[in-house]
Amino acid sequence: MKLSDSRIIITGGSSGIGYATAKYLVEKGAKVLITGRDKEKLEKAANETGAVAVVADVAKEEDIEYTFQQVKEKLGGLDVLINNAGIGRRKSLDELSLQDFEEIFRVNVYGAALMAKNAAQIFKEQNYGHIINIASTAAKKGYANGTVYSSSKFALRGMTECWQAELRPHNVRVMLVNPSEVTTAFGQPDRKERPEQANKLRSEEIAHTIVAALEMDDRGFIPEVTVFATNPFKN
Ligand SMILES: NC(=O)c1ccc[n+]([C@@H]2O[C@H](COP(=O)([O-])OP(=O)(O)OC[C@H]3O[C@@H](n4cnc5c(N)ncnc54)[C@H](OP(=O)(O)O)[C@@H]3O)[C@@H](O)[C@H]2O)c1
Questions:
Q1: Is residue 32 classed exposed, middle or buried when 0-12, 13-18 and 19+ CB atoms within 10 A define those classes?
Q2: Alpha-carbon gap, residue 98 to 215, rounded angstroms
Q3: Whose CA is nearest to atom 24 of ligand 1?
Q4: pTM for this predicted structure
Q5: DSSP H/E element including 193
Q6: Cα distance between residue 138 and residue 159, in whole Å
Q7: Which of 27, 63, 73, 174 gets the highest tally of CB atoms within 10 A of its CB?
Q8: What integer is the mean pLDDT of 200-212?
Q9: What is the pLDDT of residues 46-104, one digit of tens each?
Q10: CB distance 59 to ligand 1 below 6 Å
Q11: What's the 84 CA to ligand 1 centre distance in angstroms?
């Protein structure tokens, strides 16, 4: 697709992968709308990246409705949805509660699905559109204390395959990106971005992957891409 003048929503665009992707897409000439819950952080990110800020929580249906009203008003339409907002939690099986599942799934699974539902309505009508879901290597392999997070990303991966089957006949490309560890604020107790490390990915590698997948001519699409650090053993 041609990115210049395209209209794109990124959920969770105020830090990390969403921020880096917004910055890169704006540089490519796209009109980008970013969402997030923390107004101050989101507005700072919008000023720095050139995106439009819409304070919205993907865990709330009314905020999703509001996001799509804002898309109409501020972007004048939609070509791409990037379901990036996500949260994690590490807990052993014996510590888990129903509330843990509800809180994580509400963002990583239900939020992503309802965003996609609204986007798909627009995309089917225009017979064109793109959805990128940001899952994780945890969507492909479980690990100790990963029950809630890993199962939420397995669910996102499963939904991606369902949406591919439903939306390909409408010329809509649905793609999954699985980053391995990226040095963002993700999972940090103080919510602070981690310093770069030579043996780990930066948000820029994931932004690059997303932009490359979108820029491919629309006759083709990448169903799923996993991004690893080249040499995780490096000091
Ligand atoms: N970092 C990694 O190692 C890694 C690896 C694999 C996959 N991922 C995935 O990559 C995605 C982005 O994570 P990141 O590493 O960039 O983390 P991050 O820096 O913590 O960014 C998360 C973004 O999502 C927003 N967000 C969180 N909950 C939200 C909600 N309910 N509604 C709207 N926005 C919300 C945050 O802003 P507010 O808190 O202000 O809402 C922030 O802008 C996530 O889906 C994560 O699972 C990350």
A1: buried
A2: 41
A3: 12
A4: 0.98
A5: none
A6: 15
A7: 174
A8: 98
A9: 999 999 999 999 999 999 999 999 999 999 999 999 999 999 999 999 999 999 999 99
A10: yes
A11: 6
